[in-house]
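chain below, 177 aa
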Amino acid sequence: MFDHDVRHSIRIWDRLESLFMSASLARFMELKRMLNHLKKKSDRSMDHHFREVKTLTEALAMINCPVTHRDLLQSISMGLGPDYESLITTVSLFPQQFPFETLRTHLLEQEQRVLYLKQQDSLSTHQAFGAGVNGQNAPRPPVYAPRGRGGRGRGRQSHEQSYGQQPYGPQPYGPQS
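prediction:
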């Protein structure tokens, strides 16, 4: 009877191990695919991106499949856009000099620089656009037309006189000087 129970128990454990292994393998493949295809979205911060990376690497470690430093650098590098290319090139040349926290710090600094430059570019584009829409804001010659009481402006000249044009309307009577 004991022999029968042992064989039955072994089969049960083998079956459990087989089920666990296939589920574990499927989970490993899913997490690894997610990590390798994880992209930093433009509307999300670098800090958020790193939290996603950390969540996936911790999940892989929990199923006894830790991510190597090289794989981690590769997945982070592949998930970043062209704004981070110069830093990623440096990291790929000297991976041993970029532990996770150092890389994180440099990428957060780069993110701030990218945001600053985009803001500056947006401001200059806005200023350039506002400066010449249909010539409405194009520079105009100064107008020294009479304003206020008694026609007192600069030199008591009308706009037309200041540009050498004859004023419209009837000419004054009498001798012209």
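The radius of gyration is 37 Å. The CA atoms of residues 102 and 108 lie 10 Å apart.
thats it, cya
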